[in-house]
Amino acid sequence: MALQNVVWKALELFSHPPEQQDIRNNRAFSAELSHLIHLLSGLQLTDLRLTPEKMEWLKSAGHAPVWYMSIVDAQDDQMLDSEDEDQEDEKDANNDESSLEKAPASVMTVAAFAVKPGARLPIHDHPKMYGLLKVVHGEATVQSYSSVRCLAGTPPEGHSMPQLMAEKHEVTVVTARSDPLLLHKNHQDIHEIVNNSETTVCLFIDILSPPYHFRLPDSSDTRHGHRYITYYRELGPASPAVCPTGADKVYVILEGIKCPKEYKTQHIAYTGPSLIKEQATHQRERNAVAMMNEGGMNEEALEK
Ligand SMILES: [Fe+2]
């Protein structure tokens, strides 16, 4: 049940209205988030029905440097454009069962990545999202950045992509014994994840909310009219002239790039229990019990 508990808790937490999802000012939200982090801390390889033997197999099988396991993923069933999203909201409002089964994928993405020895997820961003990353096997070396601001104006000569100033953090090495990493708006919202091991696959679980490809709440941010992923390369230290003053921090310039050719993922099926269906069943049972308590149903009805 450990993975189910994590998914249900994440769904409950990230279903709150966006204005309540404020880690800095909403103590109730922060407390719930801490509970989710606690649940996530306990996850193990077996919760994904994986074994060390299977991890050995993943190391040499396949053609891509990274395996991707979709657990709850919007891209599987509802890659929505803005019009479709409105229609989907309407449909869900009129159909409780449908909304139970579809809501998780519109609220969050839950996935596992198995990174082969020496492979990496290139520098990429998580615009205006919450993210939790828990290593359950092997070791990940994470270089995080916190976005500060886009650099206005035309890119310098020889550069065609937008540039961003970001605070560069210390490199963090995380293992199965480490607490989950947390990212949120402008806090370590850009990162590179590297498996520096020569022998062991690194497997981590990733929870992201809201998912990529859904509309941002504030559509005035034209750069990210939709929440697309952007890949970056680090150009070097930012000029002191553009850095915030009085802070003992390292600022660098990141430049947007196309997805690096060497970064390829290969899908691996999640073979654990159907989390969404079980969540729906769980909710139906709770509704039935509530109705029974109101005297509207008998036990026979609950069994149907
Ligand atoms: Fe990421």
UniProtKB/TrEMBL annotation:
Residues 80-102 are annotated as: Disordered. It comes from the Eukaryota. Keywords: Iron, Metal-binding, Oxidoreductase. The keyword Iron-sulfur does not apply. Gene3D superfamilies: Jelly Rolls. One of its GO terms (cellular component) is mitochondrion. Residues 80-91 have a biased composition (Acidic residues). SUPFAM superfamilies: RmlC-like cupins (SSF51182). InterPro entries: PCO/ADO, RmlC-like_jellyroll, RmlC_Cupin_sf. The keyword Iron applies. Pfam families: PCO_ADO. PANTHER family: 2-AMINOETHANETHIOL DIOXYGENASE. This is 2-aminoethanethiol dioxygenase.
